[in-house]
Amino acid sequence: MGKSTPLIVWLLTAVVAGATLFVLLTYTGSAEPDSIADTGSEPGSSGREILASVGSYNLYSSDVALIRAGENAVEGWTQDQLFACAAEEAGLENTAVSRFVQERAKQLYLRDLMIEHVRSSISTPTDAEVLTYMNSLPELYLQERHYYQIIAADRAIADSLHTRLGWGQNFQVTAQNSSLGQKAAIGGDMEFISGGEMLLQGLPMEIALLDGLSEVVPSSIGWHIFKVSETREITDTLRVMRSASEGLYNSRMEAALDSVLLVTENRLAVEVVH
Length: 274
Hints:
Layout lengths: L4 H27 L18 E5 L2 E4 H6 L6 H17 L5 H27 L5 H10 L1 H4 L1 E10 L2 H12 L4 H8 L10 E6 H6 L4 H4 L3 E2 L3 E3 L2 E12 L3 H31 L7
Antiparallel strand pairs: 1-2, 3-4, 3-7, 5-7, 6-7
Helix pairs in contact: 1-4, 5-11
């Protein structure tokens, strides 16, 4: 995929991890009530206010405050803990898995803190920096391509369509008859888009610099075939500058994260056994 894709994946994963972390922290922290320091003189058996109890498990107000949980946190925790207790009573728990889940929760929590720390150090690019960046990548930001797209439900269908297109079948007619995309009715016409904008959509560099018919490209929504009919100089500089600004910011963020990984890896013994 494009250069910004690893960063996007990281950030999306961080969001999922945040939701997972709430469940894990409230479960594991409350199972060991002394593991979280007292945050004030609140009423309760250990000096902290208990918001909910299920058997010997307690959810404390300080736990909820630490992770800024939403208004349905107590109800959700209570239901989840009932399920957890039922699983324990049924002998379903694998203690090794439980231990790994707790370790993984801490890992994701600390990772998210580091990503946010790095993000806070990256400044928004100025217009002058964006223009310099655009000029350094003219094929991505100073040109735009007229894209057409076909989306198929599976690889076999996409391959069949691609073969027929290679034989000379009309792309727009094929899109109208076979594409699942929103633009199918107009022949899959995506209009003029810069290569940089295509990268921000998570597409690979070969699509951003496409000339003619593409290979079949997979995504989370199906299998894509693109065609570029013509290339011209950009006509909407402000629109492309916005995408270039995001691309530059993402490249800086990715470089900063790579630097953190490299420095830390050089300090620690790392071995991955395949």
